[in-house]
Design brief:
Number of helices: 2
Number of strands: 6
Strand content: 25-35%
Strand order of the largest sheet: 2-1-6
Structural class: alpha+beta
Radius of gyration: 14 Å
Order of helices and strands: HEEEEEEH
């Protein structure tokens, strides 16, 4: 994907969490706009431990060539008890 298009997706306001799919079959969930730095040729994706939330240091950084990003889709929201309703 083009760097400008990726930048628009990651920096939209309000931000919508997305899943980034890569040509090798891997994917990355982006839950906060500060989790990604987009450069001309690559995107640097910060990764945290599950449940750590958007704050705190990254445990690792994946560097993904933008040309290998095949698609970006909105993450489906998890249903909470209040949104599931009661029967």
């Amino acid at each position: 994907m083009e760097a400008e298009e990726l930048y628009r997706v990651f920096k939209q306001h309000p931000f919508t969490p997305v899943r980034v799919y890569v040509s090798d079959g891997s994917s990355y969930d982006i839950t906060h706009p500060d989790q990604v730095i987009v450069s001309r040729r690559a995107s640097h994706i910060g990764m945290r431990r599950d449940g750590q939330g958007p704050q705190g240091p990254f445990l690792n950084v994946a560097i993904v060539a933008n040309i290998h990003i095949t698609r970006v889709e909105p993450l489906k929201r998890r249903r909470t008890r209040s949104s599931q309703g009661s029967s």
